[in-house]
Design a protein that fits this description.
The protein is an all-alpha fold and 108 residues long. 70% of the residues lie in helices and 0% in strands. It contains three helices and no strands. Helix 2 packs antiparallel against helix 3. The chain is flat, with a radius of gyration of 19 Å.
């Protein structure tokens, strides 16, 4: 049985994540000095999902037109990322609605 260097593996995973994630859609953590407002984080997340949807739509339209440089692989990955981010956002919304209903049904 071989031993795994955890730090090396973690470093490789971070490098691969940085290569896959474009910098403009990467999540930016809140400044250390202040706390992030929940509504601001929610707005940023929703706008990031919207941007990924728009980018995937633009890439798909470019591929459908047959534009030079339009790559099927990149287009499919962008579409899948946009779909996954939308599904995640819908599930988060469902959990928030469920939590709201549960709180509203609590006896006072």
């Amino acid at each position: 049985m071989s031993t795994i260097d955890v730090n090396n593996l973690l470093s490789q995973m971070r490098q691969m994540t940085a290569q896959v994630r474009p910098p403009e859609t990467a999540f930016k953590p809140a400044p250390v000095g202040g706390q992030a407002d929940f509504s601001d984080v929610l707005k940023q997340s929703i706008s990031a999902v919207g941007r990924s949807q728009m980018e995937a739509g633009r890439m798909a339209a470019s591929f459908e037109r047959g534009d030079p440089g339009a790559d099927l692989g990149r287009t499919m990955i962008a579409v899948q990322k946009a779909d996954l981010s939308l599904r995640t956002m819908v599930e988060v919304r469902n959990k928030l609605v469920d939590a709201y209903k549960e709180i509203m049904n609590m006896p006072v």
